[in-house]
């Protein structure tokens, strides 16, 4: 069982077909399994409301994802979901994790501009 599945409640949301290019803001811990099912390729943004670089990067992440057909974005507030952040070993913000089929394949810590985010996605997709 992968790290995300162990860390999160067992509730799942059935989906007949993945919907990609969407932005999810985690509102309830039980939603994550459904989001993972809908998102074979998922960019997870661990952020905080008080984090300046997180605020700076937010529109860039959303813009990149809005133009991506193969990747969804899940935004997780580290203060609201501290247990999930600990399970993913998030120690600084922003931390962005790329997941394929529920498994982490790549991550970066610190702010990147739009072109840096695109490059990270391309490199992660190739893994």
UniProtKB/TrEMBL annotation:
Residues 1-126 form the Thioredoxin domain. InterPro entries: Thioredoxin-like_sf, Thioredoxin_CS, Thioredoxin_domain, Thioredoxin_H-type-like. PROSITE patterns: THIOREDOXIN_1, THIOREDOXIN_2. It comes from the Eukaryota. Gene3D superfamilies: Glutaredoxin. Transmembrane segments: none annotated. This is Thioredoxin domain-containing protein. It comes from Oikopleura dioica. The lineage of its organism: Eukaryota, Metazoa, Chordata, Tunicata, Appendicularia.
């Amino acid at each position: 069982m992968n790290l995300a599945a162990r860390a999160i409640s067992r509730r799942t949301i059935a989906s007949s077909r993945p919907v990609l290019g969407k932005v999810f803001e985690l509102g309830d811990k039980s939603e994550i399994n459904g989001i993972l099912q809908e998102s074979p390729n998922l960019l997870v943004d661990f952020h905080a409301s008080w984090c300046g670089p997180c605020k700076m990067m937010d529109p860039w992440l959303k813009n990149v994802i809005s133009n991506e057909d193969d990747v969804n974005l899940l935004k997780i507030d580290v203060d609201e979901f501290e247990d999930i952040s600990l399970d993913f070993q998030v120690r600084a913000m922003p931390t962005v994790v790329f997941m394929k089929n529920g498994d982490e394949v790549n991550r970066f810590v610190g702010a990147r501009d739009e072109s840096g985010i695109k490059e990270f996605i391309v490199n992660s997709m190739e893994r």
